[in-house]
Amino acid sequence: MDQIKSTNLIVTYNSEKEISSLLADLHTVNPGSPVVVIDNASTDNTVEIIKNDYPAVQLFQNSQNLGYARAVNFGFDLCSTPYVFLLNPDIRIPTAAVITQMTSWLDNSPLTAAIGPQQCTVKNDTMHFNFTTSHWGFRSFINHFYYQLRHKWLFTTPIRVPMLNAGCLMIRRTVFTRVGGINPKYFLYGEEPDLGLKLKRYGYECRLLPNSYVIHHREKSLQTLSANRRWRIRWQAIWNISHAVLTGWGRIISDYLTMTKFNPY
To answer: Cα separation of 36 and 251, whole Å?
Structure first.
């Protein structure tokens, strides 16, 4: 039997409308791969659905909402496979090719710590590719812009990017641990620049797959909160992202000035 290379890690919060579809997709496209769900004190039927319909899932229930970063860090401690497939519950995976391509690239590119596919939404049977933090790089930005004009990709091989959208990515478990995981102060948002710049500091790469995609029904959990709560989270997001970018680049510049180098191996 082939070695199981990845664990599927999902953080849920009031995800009763999405979690079944994702777990069914994973059963089809990534069979045999363990699934770990960290639930951040959902108040809907998320936990009951997982317990009743997916008993093989390793489910851990937090007594309170610890935030995304702390839940992810805890989830990684429960994984033992070489790679961890980090997913939002509102992701849908159309084909197994996404898994195969990410795993294959990590197998053959030791400097790549994380890799992720394109993300899209479907409206009126038309697919729209999302502009995410995965496109915060020159080549990935140009590729996205070119697609909007020509409906085809300019670059077709995995693109090196500063960071990846955390809604769907595969990452080396040992590298995630080595760089310290995600800053637990980031309750929600800020995790992408925090993790991406930590990986860069240690000499690793992030890669975006131009020709593979998942469907992302964005921010479904946020819609279960009050408008006032959503407003406060979005303002906090601005602080988190700014703090992560400034802190990350500050450390990289400091390393350069002091000639500090990290060996990615």
So the answer is: 32
Query: For the chain, what is the largest distance between any 2 Cα atoms, rounded to a whole number of angstroms?
Result: 56
**Any bridge partners for residue 169, and if so which?**
86
DSSP conformation class of 128: E
pLDDT tens digit sequence for 50-62:
999 999 999 999 9
pLDDT in tens, 129-158: 888 989 989 999 999 999 889 888 899 899
Q: Looking at residue 218, what DSSP letter applies?
A: T
- The reply to whether 145 falls in a domain is no
- Domain holding 228, by residue range, is 6-118+156-257
Q: pLDDT (tens digit, 9 = 90+) per residue, 88-101?
A: 999 999 999 999 99
Taking CA atoms, 31 is separated from 28, 193, 233, in Å, by 6, 31, 36
Q: Which two tokens stand for residue 240?
A: 């988190």
Strand-pair partners of 208: 116, 159
191-201 vs 227-257: helix axis angle to the nearest 10?
Answer: 10
| CATH code for the domain of 105 | 3.90.550.10
The whole-angstrom separation of Cα 131 and Cα 162 is 14
pLDDT mean across residues, the chain:
91
Is residue 131 assigned to a domain? no
CA dihedral 61, 9, 161, 252 (to 10 degrees): 50
For 33, the token pair is 């791969």
Task: Report the alpha-carbon distance of residue 20 to residue 14 in Å, rounded.
Answer: 12
Residue 240 domain flag:
yes
Q: Which amino acid belongs to residue 258?
A: T
